Fold this protein.
Amino acid sequence: MQQIIETIIYDYSYFSLYGLTFVYFLFLYFVLAPLFLSVCKLLNKKGILHKIINKKVKRKQLIFEIKHSFKSIVIFGFSVLPIIYLIRIGKITLLPDTFLNIIIGIVVLTVWNEIHFFVVHRIMHLPFFMKRVHFVHHQSRVPTVWSVYSFHWFEAFLLSTVPLTIMPFVPFSIIAVFLYPLASILLNYAGHCNYRFGDGYGNSWKLFGTFHNEHHSRGRDNYGFASNALDKFYQRYIKKH
């Protein structure tokens, strides 16, 4: 396995690397989205999940989301290229692919993604970017699993830089980097599936990304990715000052 990974990193052309990354994100979106939605519907029938907005989404919205998500996946395909380049010239160090390194790497990347996403998302809600860029994502007033990658190309580019903005400074297992988009999109589906835990009352059901579901309908608050921790920090320590 290690030899295969090293061959891909050091011997494959950048064109091939782009193709592999593009297909990987296609799989994460077009295969996992319907599976995730099916699980949500099953848990809803069992009373474990509760639908947030009980409104049927129009086919026009779904087509819009899939079209823009495909454009985002085209952008995401390029995200691996600067990382591989920096690995090849020795500017990025890779850790051994031990179980511990993989788990810690996924956790660190997920935490970093929370910070990265919050900053980018706050910027996207500035009037200039909201009107010209972020409005694409907010066309999904009722979020769906198909809206997870529905971005303007510029926002897709910014969000694709999560690994690139930390890997030159923190070493990771390459398998952790490979598995991070899987962990990320599962949280992303939770944040857009329009379902939440329990009967919908109180805060106990707001888990695993479900805060973001409300952001789409309200257009404000809950700027975080999988939690509202940074929202609370911003409100308490930054906005007041």
